[in-house]
Amino acid sequence: MNASIAHGSPAPGFLELYTPKLITVLREGYHLRNLRADALAGLTVAIVALPLSMAIAIASGATPAQGLYTSIFGGFLVSALGGSRFQIGGPAGAFIILVAATVAEHGMSGLILATFLSGIMLALIGLLRLGTFIKFIPFPVTVGFTAGIAVIIFASQLRDLLGLSLAHEPGALAAKLQALWSVRGTLTPAALGLACVTIAVILVLKRYRPHWPGMLIAVVTASLIAYAAHLPVETIGTKFGGIPSSLPLPHLPDISMSKVMAVMPAAIAFTLLGAIESLLSAVVADGMTGRRHRSNCELVAQGVANVGASLFGGFCVTGTIARTATNVRSGAHGPVAGMLHSVFLLLFVLIAAPLASFIPLAALAGVLAIVAWNMIDRSAVGVLLRSGWGESVVLAVTFLLTIFRDLTEAIVVGFALGAVVFIQRMSRMTTVETQAPLVASDIGDDTYPNRPYDESRATDPEIVVYRVSGALFFGAAASIGAILDRIQDRHRAFVLDLSAVPFLDSTGANMIEGLAQKARQKGVAFWISGARPAARRTLLIHGLRPPHCRYATSIAAACQRQRRSDWASGTAT
């Protein structure tokens, strides 16, 4: 079947599209064993989120308490109202540069107002069903700006990592590095040592005890060393005066027309990045679990969460990929795990907040150094650099603009370059069908030789076949992927026919690679038939190789080889 064919069922209504996954899970039946699974997953995520929330807040120019409030209130609303079953919301490393720039230019009141406005815009985007358009952003753009953000995050932590004394730290990367180099003589060996201990503990535990909360253990270890040895390092207590053991009362931000106009560019940037980051995180969760999120419902929840967080003094909330993946790996059953993660963080604030005063800033800087390293998708960078000059240029320009200019500008320019590259490539293929009429004329059955019709290809319930017609590029990958994402456990094999695909870019290949991963998780054989040499090269670069993905010249050849394999293994029915 063509990937453009709509589903046979009628289009879902408003209530179906915007019903939170929490309601869906409760309708399925929620039992005590499910609550136990969600409680354990929520506690695990809270242990990961505790140091991260404070570290991201400090790096953003906010207080550690604001980071916790963001995870508590924003995270709860994301899980309770979201369209993703496993999404964990909170402050994200991707926002550090935008938040820090907003605080520097407009102060804390400006940041909270920008978060409030961003929440309203995110909710409107979701209600207007514009979330699908976020998926049109090419894969090289997302990889490029994420890597650029990671570099900036690491640079922002150099002062605390090295224990440098610097009265004013510039925001621009080049000026920042120059200023830090000028005060290199103020390096504090104790701070550098604690940062190294933190990084080493995280890496060792990740290698030998991957299920342990490495970041929390590393921060606690560094804190105990600093306290026991009376090391001369800056801590949360010395810089921020600790964390209050109570919650703030909700209040609206300072709203005036002049203030709104001043922070509107920041609010738009928060909205754009928040939508991209949250939907990417939801896609990651879908790939790990085989479930599907509702993007517009998720954006409405993200909007409400940002408004809610701003009322309690928090800042930007978005879906967080690392914490969401931790939630899935910890055995979460549904959104209750994310809600409980916020409850556990709330209990920490109410009971154990004074202990946070002893945490060295160098330890939190070490945590963010690991976060920055993990944000760079090194395998994806390598794949894109091997994919051709177009992907390499888009990746490099997006990366460099993120570092030296502005994140929003990087995304816009990267998207425009991706479109130009696509148009240039498609222009080479227009000669193939330039003489084809708009509406094909009828022809006789004997005009062209046809193979005999094999009815088994349409009736075999064990082999599902999909045919894609047309260019499979970043603008079409999302909609085609949504149709193809239907691999069921009852199928032994999934055949994806690309014989009518004249062009395949890295975003389309990345989508197909996700389908292959899902098939592998379900034990379904994944076949690609009829791929042209250029498309096949792109697929191979993206890791679609045997035995996880097998190739055939046609659908018939794929089905025949699959049946032979089934007979040989004794699984044929």
TrEMBL record:
Compartment annotation: Membrane
- Note the Pfam families from the entry: STAS (PF01740), Sulfate_transp (PF00916)
Q: How does it sit in the membrane?
A: Multi-pass membrane protein
Q: Provide the transmembrane region boundaries.
A: 39-59, 65-81, 110-130, 137-156, 187-205, 212-230, 262-285, 343-373, 393-423, 464-484
Q: Where is the STAS domain?
A: 453-544
Its keywords, alphabetically, are: Membrane, Transmembrane, Transmembrane helix
GO cellular component, alphabetical, reads: membrane
Superkingdom of the source? Answer: Bacteria
Q: Which InterPro entries match?
A: SLC26A/SulP_dom, SLC26A/SulP_fam, STAS_dom, STAS_dom_sf
The GO annotation for biological process reads:
transmembrane transport
Q: Which PANTHER family match?
A: SULFATE TRANSPORTER
Name used for this protein in its record: SulP family inorganic anion transporter
Traced from the root, the source organism's taxonomic lineage reads: Bacteria, Pseudomonadati, Pseudomonadota, Alphaproteobacteria, Rhodobacterales
